[in-house]
Design brief:
This protein is of the alpha+beta class and 244 residues long. It is built from 11 helices and 4 strands. The chain has a 4-stranded antiparallel beta sheet with strand order 1-2-4-3, with helices on both faces.
């Protein structure tokens, strides 16, 4: 199997790390790869903040709901959508356009693509990691702590380190549910979802040694209701986003 395909098909979230440090050269390679991600109209509408300050890491871990790996990881990168740079430097524009939903979507997609490139680069270099979206519990506090300007918004962390754990690969949805041909064909979805719920229930039953056996639809519904994060939209509109 091609090494890149093998790497992608064996993705897993790593939350435990050795004490081995990540060299500056490796960090720069990871960020350089992030910068090579596709970008809408070449806007490159993101900023990546490396979090070295341990006090800031403590706060991020707390605000994310007690995610200890934020403190333990060798490298923590805060990925932010960034339309401030456009507001400051783009020539001959109506700056109100940066407050519309399309501009927000462009910045969010640009940020996610850059993070994915960074993650794949890190994995190819022997690192493991996990994305942490829980920081959006406290977007306003994070913005103040990191001095984020108007139109810059925190989205997630990428925590990286040399793995000290090797969990099983978490089963993904059946391809037939996510891969459609020519139209949104639901004819097989119910049966596929039933089978997938059983697969996920068995996965968690084994992983937790019988303590959990949530189905996928049950687990995701619970998480959605536990973390509605209405404050995210409220704060983003406060700093000039999603107004049109």
């Amino acid at each position: 199997m091609d090494k890149t395909i093998e790497l992608l098909l064996n993705h897993k979230s790593i939350r435990k790390y050795t004490d081995q440090k990540i060299s500056q050269e490796t960090i720069e390679k990871i960020v350089s790869c992030a910068q090579m991600a596709p970008s809408s109209s070449h806007f490159q509408a993101y900023t990546i903040i490396e979090v070295k300050d341990f006090n800031k890491r403590n706060l991020l871990a707390e605000w994310a709901g007690g995610q200890k790996w934020v403190e333990d990881a060798s490298l923590v990168l805060l990925f932010c959508g960034d339309l401030y740079r456009a507001c400051k430097y783009y020539e001959d524009i109506d700056k109100d356009i940066l407050s519309n939903t399309e501009a927000y979507t462009v910045a969010t997609v640009d940020t996610a693509l850059a993070a994915q490139k960074a993650f794949i680069a890190a994995q190819s270099l022997g690192l493991g990691g996990v994305c942490v979206g829980g920081i959006r519990n406290e977007v306003e506090k994070i913005s103040k702590e990191f001095g984020l300007p108007y139109l810059v918004f925190p989205l997630f962390l990428l925590c990286l380190g040399y793995p000290d754990d090797d969990p099983e690969i978490k089963p993904r949805l059946p391809m037939g549910i996510v891969h459609k041909i020519d139209f949104y064909d639901e004819s097989k979805d119910d049966q596929l979802m039933k089978e997938y719920n059983k697969t996920i229930s068995d996965y968690y039953h084994k992983r937790t040694k019988g303590e959990e056996k949530d189905r996928w639809t049950e687990r995701c519904g619970k998480y959605l209701m536990e973390k509605p994060r209405y404050n995210v939209g409220d704060y983003f509109r406060k700093i000039g986003l999603l107004k049109k």
